[in-house]
Amino acid sequence: MDIFLEAFLNVLSIKNIIAMTLLIPLGMMAGALPGFTATMAVAILVPFTFAMNPIMGLICVSAVYCAAIYGGAFPAILINTPGTPSSIATCFDGYPMTLQGRAQEALFTIAFASLVGGFIGTIGLIAFSLPLAKIALKFGPPEYFWVSIFGLTIIAGLSGDSLLKGIAGGVLGLLISTIGIAPVGGDVRFTFGIASFQGGVELISVLIGFFCIPEVFKMAKDPVGSYLKSTNIGHEGGGYREVIYKGFKNAFTDTINLVRSSIIGLFVGILPGAGGNIANLIAYNETKRASKDPESFGKGNPQGIVATESADKATIMGSFVPLLTLGVPGSPVAAVVYGALMIQGLNPGPELFTKHAEITYTFMMSFFVAMALTVLIGMFAGVLFYQIIMRLPVRVLVPAILLLTIVGSYAVRNNYMDVIFMLASGYLGYVLSNLGFSPGPVVLGLVLGPIAEKGLVQGFLMGNSMFPGTPWLIFFTRPISIVLIVISVISALWPIYAARRRRRAAL
Amino acid sequence: MKRFMTGLAIVLLFVAVFGVFGMMAEAAYPERPITYVIAFNPGGESDITARAQQPYLEKVLGTQIIITYKIGGGGAVAWSEVPRMRPDGYTIVGHNIPHIILQPLQRKDTGYKTTDLKTVCWFQATPNILVVPVDSQFKTLEDFVKYAKEHPGQITLGGSGSYSANHLGTVEFNEAAGIETTYIPFTGSGDAVPAFLGGHVTGLMTYTTMVANYREQMRPLAVATEERVSIFPDVPTFKELGYDYVEGAYRGICVSPKTPDEIVNKLADAFKQVNETPEFKEMMEAMGFQMVFYGPEESEKFVEDRVEYYKSILDKLEMK
């Protein structure tokens, strides 16, 4: 127990608290700018940490990471654009809340949801790292294939009015994901002779295109006046105390939702290769599925953002489980930290718990403290962000956002092709949204396509060595695969069951 | 007319100013910060190496080194821009063998030819190494080959990517030993580790750096070098055990093909000095990297040899 206390005191030293407080606004800004991801924020920070002692360096990493993921929710709620892929589903209910004049309520709701997500994530990281990592290792290529199939079954929950349009969108996303070099086999696909296409389509530039550009077009339709006309305060009276209380109530009325979403986030985060981009979508869908009133989702139900924002915070801690226990960087940010640890002379993996236990536990503890500070600063930052957007006239806001989308999509990979993709998908997104397609399934297909493909091809290769002639058997003979298949089938059939239940209730 | 004269004067002033800057740049390279482009993800071997080199390079060259990333297509996206880059030595790009050789041979529209990349130097190697889990039934390479002969195709070996040193290495080893194993490509050497630790593959054909990281979990059977690697003195080479198989990846930097020789030489010298710094060398070797050095001229020859070598392997395997 001593070690925990020591670690906790380490985090709370004045020096570290000051460092975190200074870095959190920067991380939040990076997260809030579409195109600048948590990975980039951490990658920029890391060289500076070489000059610090390992403990302080790692604490800075956790502060920037938490802050960037938190910041990603601001544009999701206020302008319907996820700042990072971890906040995709936050748009679905966060933005409708803004349109109803409940933006500040939403911003305070995610503050409390994040706090719980961060808390549960940290507990999971500290208490259950080793067993959780062992479970994650049981997932081989066939299991990853089934996980992504399960992921695709939630299309129904994300498709809005028409399931058929949702499936079409999902297929479109899967197809876009095949552009570039095949993840296994190295074949070149759909590059049309353009060298830059070899890198494939970057999720973030498509996200910006699909979510942000149509919104900007809609804003431009009504260029007079300001974008957010009504506010909570004034219209509903009561001032900040009231709004904060509402946010608090939103987060805690359905504790099952909070805990379930955080656990989903934690576990998805632990799986190497899966992260916040998938966790927030799954958590959103499960909340909607469990709700007695699924119709209210997508129309400004605060439980939607409670789910996504608690889940994506828990993925932060989850993504460090494989790195710290096994030395396997399971996410892009963990990979950056892996590099940093190596240069600091710390060997990622089991050694961290024996030789460098103090550093490791301090790092783990620092997540919760960083998250608490982030939430505290995030409340002010959210209000500030909101005030800025509210006050800017649309004729300033539209070009400013457009400029940011271009800079952001270029910055992801320093590749002008991403800007072209962003604009093209923006136009496509605008047309599709007018036709009643929602962007969720497209993005889902894009995220899951490469995981499904890799799992399928690697699984077949494995299968060929185990069952020569009938390689597909491998997908149906492993225990975890079978569990995943059952879950997928239930999930796929759920909409039919739910529709029947509703019909019966209506009778 | 007056307006024209003013315009002319401004233009001339610009020309003069930029001309002077241009001459200064030629006079004393490097005059301003150098951008070091990494073609792979942050946290990978190339990134770790560049981050480790950065402070030493800055000291030797007397200017700032800015590390940026241009990721995609297994490095091809970054390398396809090298031929079009300004030949002034202010943008240097990390590149790898066999990637820059195999991609143009295997893909149609890589966007660059191997000879388009002017190699400044190769400064580091990561040899292939065959590993199995510590609790594996295979204690020696002999056990492994014997089992593979009795059970053709049943052993699965994970490695980094398709058409990589790991991939070709597995094929070369199969041929040298007269066995058949199944190679399973992963997206990067680190990506294969969870599958290895989870027992989803029999072993890995990976790089020495991986074994340095996972000493507790990996049992190296043999390393694909001419001589034993200094940090694993107990691990035999394939050659010692009678298999003619040497393979691995090399890392270096390249610049635009028209870059003047003085600049190329100056950069090569700087990287050489960094390599020879004892502190740096020790750090890199502890991480499992092998320190080598090929200067600009040796590099050209080296690449030509490797091109012929890989062509022969690709032909032999009809993978082309």
Automatic annotation (TrEMBL), chain A:
InterPro entries reported for this sequence: DUF112_TM (IPR002823)
> Does the keyword section mention Cytoplasm?
no
State which residue ranges cross the membrane.
21-49, 55-79, 106-132, 144-160, 167-186, 192-213, 320-343, 363-385, 392-412, 427-448, 455-474, 480-499
Q: Is RNA-binding a UniProt keyword of this protein?
A: no
Sequence ranges assigned to domain DUF112 in this UniProt record: 18-444
Alphabetical keyword list: Membrane, Transmembrane, Transmembrane helix
Q: Kindly give the Pfam families that the UniProt entry links to this protein.
A: TctA
Q: Write the protein's name.
A: C4-dicarboxylate ABC transporter permease
* Organism from which the protein derives: Acetomicrobium hydrogeniformans
Automatic annotation (TrEMBL), chain B:
Annotated InterPro entries: BUG (IPR005064), Bug_dom1 (IPR042100)
Q: Which PANTHER family does the record associate with it? A: BLR1237 PROTEIN, TRICARBOXYLATE-BINDING PROTEIN
Which species is this record about? Acetomicrobium hydrogeniformans
Specify one Pfam family: TctC
Instruction: Tell me its family.
Output: Belongs to the UPF0065 (bug) family.
Q: Which domain of life is it from?
A: Bacteria
Q: What is the lineage of its organism?
A: Bacteria, Thermotogati, Synergistota, Synergistia, Synergistales
Residues spanning the membrane: none
Name the UniProt record assigns to this protein:
Tripartite tricarboxylate transporter substrate binding protein
